[in-house]
Amino acid sequence: PTITFVQPTGKSDIVSVEEETSLMRAAVTNGVEGIVGECGGQAMCATCHVYVRPEFEDELPELSDDEDEMLDCTTAERTSQSRLGCQVSVGAHLDAIIVDIPTDQV
Ligand code: FES
Asked: Which residues pair with 49 in a beta bridge?
């Protein structure tokens, strides 16, 4: 699958990843700026905050209680599009997903 990360500046990076790679891991391993992933994907840091474009909403995994709580701790404003990048993995179902990167993670 491919993922498009759009920076606050409008610049975008398109990366190709293996099935079941999380958005956080995809960004970090491909050097996409603006995603930190401090806790390594444990839903414990909120530095992998992304805004998923609304057209992909139906295919997203359900929000867990841990993720929901952590999303209240993001540096950039939480919106209805907010998710933790480490909790959303892409496969056939979210191929070509587009996410916006927040202005700040820490
Ligand atoms: Fe820490 Fe996602 S990497 S919450």
From this structure: 84
Quote the pLDDT of residue 54.
97
ipTM: 0.99
Atom of ligand 1 nearest to the CA of 85: 2
pLDDT given at position 53: 98
Alpha carbons 82 and 50: distance in angstroms, whole number = 6
pLDDT of residue 65: 97
d(Cα 105, Cα 39) in Å, to the nearest integer?
13
What is the CA(11)–ligand 1 centre distance, in A?
Answer: 23
Stated pTM of the model = 0.97
Per-domain residue ranges for the chain? 2-100
Distance from Cα 87 to the centre of ligand 1, integer Å: 8
CA-closest candidate to residue 50, choices 83, 21, 24: 83
Please identify, in words, the CATH class of the domain defined by 2-100: alpha beta
HEC-encoded secondary structure of 30-69: CCCCCCCCCCCCCCCCCCCEEEECHHHHHHCCCCCHHHHH
